[in-house]
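PROTEIN DESIGN WORKSHEET
SECTION A - STRUCTURE
LENGTH: 624
C-ALPHA CELLS:
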C-alpha cells in the first residue's frame, strides 16, 4: 500500500517484524503533494515492544493530519479495539479494509456501509497487492482531513465513566484529545504518566490520582478491564456486519493447518530446507553460478585484464592495492561478485518466495513449543530466519520481541549459531559433494543453538515469553512480488555489502603492507594448529571478523586450492560459523543491546568457537 501511494518500495511482508523503523515518502492526494508515513504495526496504544512504543509516540505527538488504519477484512472484530483507541485520539481517521479478495474466497461477507455509519468513518474496501481501492483511499483521506471527528462510544461497566472523570482533570494542551491519555492513565501506563506530568501545570497530580482511584474500583486488573470493555464495544459495532456463506478456494486454510502441525509440518520443513537451501542456494547458487562467474568470468577474463591494465604502474604497493593478493579488483570485487553475489541472490529469491506465500507464520507456530525451551517464543523465528539472510539486519529486528530477556537471547543465538546467507551458501557449496561433512557441520551448529539457548534461558532471569501472532492467508506467491522483493534486496546488497568488501580489501592491503596483518595471522597460527588446521586458516578467521561472508569466501579459496582435507574443512566450517560476528553485526549488537552486553557476548563466543573446533577435531580424528 505504501508503494502504491508513494511509488517507493519498502520491504512488504505478510508477517510482523519487517518494518522496524518509520518509512516516509511523498505522494499526491487531492492534487497536493503530501508526506506519507509508514509506521510499524501495533494492536494497542498500550504496547510493550520498542517499535510499538515508537508508534504510540508518533500518534500521541499528533504528527499526522490524517490516520489510516489498515485492517484485515477477515479479522474485523479483532481489529476494531485499536480503531476505538485511534478514535480516542480525536484525529481524522480512515479505515482501509484490506484483503477483501481473501474474505470473499472464505465466504465472509462484510457490510462496510453499515459499519461505516456506526463508526462515523470512511471505510475503503481494498486489495492492496492488486492496487484495488487505492484511488478510493486517496479520496477518503482527502475528505477526512476536512470532516468533523467523532469520538468513540462510551464503554460500559464503569470504564467509560472513569475515562471521562480522568479526562476532566487534564487541563494541559496536548496534540491529541485527552481521552486517549485518560484511558492510558487508568491502565497505569508509565509513558502516559510522564507525558501528563510534563504537560500539566501541577505535574498532573489530579489526573494521576483520579486514574489510580478509578483503577482501584475495578475488580480485575485495569488494563484487562479496559481492553475487555473495548472488545465488548467492538463486538457491538460489528454485530450484523459480518455474514458467512460457503466459501471457495479453502485449500489454503487446509494446507496452512497441516504446515503448522508437527506431524506434517516438520517433514515439509525438512523438504523446504533440502530443496531450497541445499539444492537451490547451495548447489545451484554456490556451485553452478559461482563456478561460472569465478572460472569463466574472473579467472579467464577479468583478472588477466585487470593485471594487464595495472602492469605499467611502477610502484608495487599501488599495484597491489588493485590487483595484488588482497587487491580491490582481484580479491574484493571477485569475492563480492563471483562468490557471494550468486549465493545471496539465490537465497533472496528463495526467501522472497517463502515470504510471499505466508509460510513463515506457520513456521513460527510450528517451532513455538521448542523455542519456549530456549526462552523464546515462536515470534522469534522472524529474526532467526532473517539471520540466514543477514545477521546484522536480524539483530536490529530483535527489537520486535516483547521482553528484554528474549531480545538478549535472540541476539546471542544470532551471533553464535546462525550463518548469514553468503556464509551458509558457501559452506553448502563446499560440502555439497561431502554429505557426511555436511551432516557433521549441521549437527554441530544445530546442537550449539539448542544447548546454548537452553542453558542461557536457565541462567537469565525473567518470565517465559507469551506468544501471539496473526496468521495471514496462505496464498500462491505472485511472481511480481517475489521479483520486486528480490531485486530490492539485491539493490541493498550492492549499496551496503559491496562497498564493505572493497573497504575490507583496503584494510587487508594496508595490514599486509604494514606487516600488521601477517602479525595477527601469526598469532592465530598456534590456535588454528591446535584445531588441526593449516596455518593459512588463521587469515580466514581475520577475514571473518571483517565480514562473515568474506571469511567464507576465503575458505572457498582454500578448499579450491586443495589446502584442506575433509576433516579440516568440517572443523574450519564449524569454527568459522560459531566464530565472533562481523564488525557490522557487532556494532549493531552494541546499538541494540548496549556495549556491556555486546562485549560479554564477544568474550563468550570467541573461546567457545575455538573450543568447539578443538573438540570436534579430536572426535573426528578418532572416528573418521
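SECTION B - SEQUENCE
RESIDUE ASSIGNMENT:
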Amino acid at each position: 500500500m505504501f508503494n502504491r501511494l508513494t511509488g517507493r518500495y519498502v520491504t512488504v511482508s505478510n508477517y510482523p517484524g519487517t518494518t522496524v523503523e518509520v518509512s516516509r515518502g511523498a505522494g499526491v492526494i487531492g492534487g497536493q503533494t503530501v508526506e506519507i508515513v509508514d509506521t510499524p504495526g501495533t494492536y494497542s496504544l498500550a504496547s510493550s515492544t520498542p517499535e510499538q512504543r515508537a508508534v504510540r509516540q508518533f500518534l500521541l505527538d499528533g504528527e499526522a493530519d490524517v490516520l489510516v488504519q489498515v485492517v484485515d477484512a477477515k479479522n474485523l472484530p479483532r481489529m476494531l479495539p485499536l480503531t476505538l483507541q485511534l478514535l480516542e485520539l480525536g484525529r481524522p481517521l480512515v479505515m482501509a479494509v484490506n484483503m477483501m479478495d481473501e474474505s470473499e474466497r472464505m465466504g465472509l461477507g462484510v457490510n462496510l456501509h453499515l459499519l461505516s455509519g456506526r463508526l462515523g468513518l470512511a471505510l475503503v474496501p481494498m486489495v492492496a497487492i492488486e492496487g484495488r481501492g487505492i484511488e478510493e483511499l486517496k479520496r477518503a483521506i482527502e475528505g477526512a482531513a476536512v470532516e468533523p471527528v467523532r469520538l468513540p462510544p462510551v464503554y460500559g461497566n464503569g470504564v467509560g465513566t472513569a475515562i471521562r472523570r480522568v479526562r476532566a482533570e487534564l487541563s494541559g494542551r496536548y496534540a491529541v484529545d485527552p481521552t486517549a491519555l485518560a484511558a492510558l492513565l487508568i491502565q497505569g501506563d508509565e509513558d502516559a504518566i510522564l507525558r501528563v506530568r510534563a504537560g500539566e501545570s501541577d505535574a498532573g497530580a489530579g489526573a494521576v490520582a483520579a486514574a489510580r482511584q478509578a483503577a482501584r474500583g475495578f475488580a480485575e486488573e485495569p488494563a484487562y478491564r479496559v481492553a475487555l470493555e473495548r472488545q465488548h464495544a467492538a463486538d457491538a459495532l460489528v454485530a450484523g456486519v459480518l455474514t458467512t456463506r460457503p466459501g471457495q478456494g479453502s485449500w489454503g486454510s487446509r494446507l496452512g493447518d497441516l504446515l503448522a502441525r508437527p506431524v506434517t509440518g516438520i517433514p515439509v520443513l525438512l523438504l523446504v530446507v533440502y530443496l531450497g537451501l541445499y539444492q537451490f542456494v547451495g548447489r545451484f547458487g554456490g556451485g553452478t553460478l559461482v563456478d561460472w562467474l569465478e572460472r569463466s568470468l574472473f579467472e579467464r577474463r577479468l583478472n588477466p585484464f585487470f593485471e594487464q591494465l595495472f602492469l605499467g604502474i611502477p610502484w608495487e604497493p599501488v599495484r597491489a592495492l588493485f590487483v595484488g593478493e588482497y587487491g580491490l579488483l582481484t580479491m574484493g570485487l571477485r569475492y563480492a561478485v563471483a562468490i557471494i553475489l550468486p549465493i545471496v541472490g539465490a537465497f533472496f529469491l528463495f526467501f522472497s518466495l517463502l515470504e510471499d506465500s505466508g509460510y513463515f507464520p506457520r513456521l513460527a507456530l510450528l517451532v513455538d513449543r521448542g523455542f519456549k525451551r530456549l526462552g523464546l517464543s515462536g515470534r522469534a523465528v522472524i529474526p532467526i530466519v532473517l539471520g540466514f539472510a543477514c545477521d546484522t539486519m536480524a539483530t536490529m529486528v530483535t527489537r520486535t520481541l516483547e521482553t528484554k530477556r528474549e531480545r538478549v537471547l535472540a541476539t546471542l543465538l544470532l551471533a553464535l549459531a546462525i550463518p548469514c546467507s553468503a556464509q551458509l551458501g558457501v559452506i553448502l557449496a563446499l560440502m555439497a559433494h561431502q554429505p557426511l561433512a555436511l551432516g557433521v557441520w549441521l549437527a554441530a551448529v544445530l546442537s550449539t543453538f539448542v544447548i546454548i539457548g537452553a542453558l542461557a534461558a536457565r541462567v537469565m532471569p525473567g518470565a517465559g515469553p507469551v506468544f501471539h501472532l496473526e496468521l495471514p492467508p496462505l496464498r500462491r506467491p505472485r511472481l511480481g512480488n517475489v521479483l520486486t522483493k528480490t531485486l530490492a534486496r539485491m539493490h541493498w546488497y550492492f549499496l551496503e555489502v559491496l562497498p564493505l568488501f572493497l573497504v575490507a580489501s583496503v584494510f587487508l592491503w594496508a595490514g599486509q603492507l604494514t606487516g600488521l596483518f601477517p602479525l595477527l595471522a601469526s598469532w592465530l597460527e598456534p590456535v588454528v594448529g591446535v584445531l588441526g588446521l593449516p596455518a593459512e586458516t588463521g587469515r580466514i578467521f581475520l577475514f571473518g571478523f571483517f565480514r562473515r561472508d568474506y571469511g567464507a569466501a576465503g575458505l572457498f579459496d582454500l578448499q579450491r586450492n586443495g589446502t584442506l582435507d575433509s576433516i579440516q574443512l568440517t572443523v574450519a566450517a564449524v569454527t568459522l560459523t560459531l566464530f565472533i560476528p562481523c564488525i557490522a553485526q557487532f556494532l549493531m549488537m552494541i546499538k541494540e543491546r548496549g556495549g556491556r552486553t555486546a562485549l560479554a557476548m564477544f568474550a563468550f563466543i570467541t573461546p567457545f568457537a575455538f573450543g568447539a573446533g578443538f573438540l570436534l577435531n579430536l572426535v573426528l580424528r578418532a572416528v573418521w
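SECTION C - NOTES
The first helix runs from residue 2 to 6.
DSSP finds 28 helices and seven strands in the chain.
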